[in-house]
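TASK: fixed-backbone design
INPUT:
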């Protein structure tokens, strides 16, 4: 938690309490279904999962009443941490694995997150439209872009036009060669820790 409050000093008491609760809740459910690495949940939960997810918040501040979809949420990342940070925005977390979405739904309930909905559905079957779509290394960018193309609200309210935020790592030159409009943000510029040396947020306007 000291890591989180170091980089997000604006957290209120309720947000801090929810982030504290997160680790114990995830440790409980992770013994029943493998949501995330058991090694990292013990030693690096806040750095590798929570802070990594919140890297998107260093690039954009979601406004109240924003509508955001987390594609391939898996264990609830990056959606759950961002929903705690932005309680006035609405989040839809989707995954095609039903046992994972059921557990993430329970985690969201235990954390008291009324701004989160979870659905077992594929991205290309979602009918709603969103301000932004977020994802953490669920697939190659070209595939995710194809799945969500046309699922964006037409009105832009933020400092960046509506689009996609990916959490990715490593050399993305080949992956992004067909997306000249994409912009890479290096998380080491925001979080001064070794884990983030190769981690990036990639923004792609719709």
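OUTPUT:
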């Amino acid at each position: 938690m000291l890591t989180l409050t170091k980089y997000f000093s604006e957290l209120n008491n309720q947000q801090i309490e929810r982030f504290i609760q997160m680790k114990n809740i995830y440790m409980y459910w992770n013994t029943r279904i493998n949501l995330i690495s058991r090694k990292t949940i013990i030693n690096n939960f806040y750095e590798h999962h929570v802070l990594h997810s919140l890297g998107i918040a260093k690039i954009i501040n979601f406004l109240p009443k924003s509508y955001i979809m987390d594609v391939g949420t898996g264990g609830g990342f990056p959606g759950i941490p961002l929903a705690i940070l932005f309680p006035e925005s609405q989040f839809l977390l989707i995954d095609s694995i039903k046992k994972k979405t059921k557990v993430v739904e329970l985690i969201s309930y235990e954390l008291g997150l009324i701004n989160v909905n979870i659905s077992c559905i594929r991205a290309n079957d979602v009918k709603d439209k969103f301000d932004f779509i977020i994802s953490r290394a669920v697939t190659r960018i070209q595939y995710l872009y194809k799945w969500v193309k046309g699922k964006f609200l037409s009105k832009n309210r933020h400092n960046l036009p509506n689009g996609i935020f990916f959490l990715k790592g490593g050399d993305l030159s080949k992956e992004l060669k067909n997306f000249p409009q994409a912009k890479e943000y290096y998380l080491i510029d925001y979080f001064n820790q070794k884990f983030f040396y190769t981690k990036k947020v990639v923004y792609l306007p719709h």
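COMMENT: The mean pLDDT is 94.
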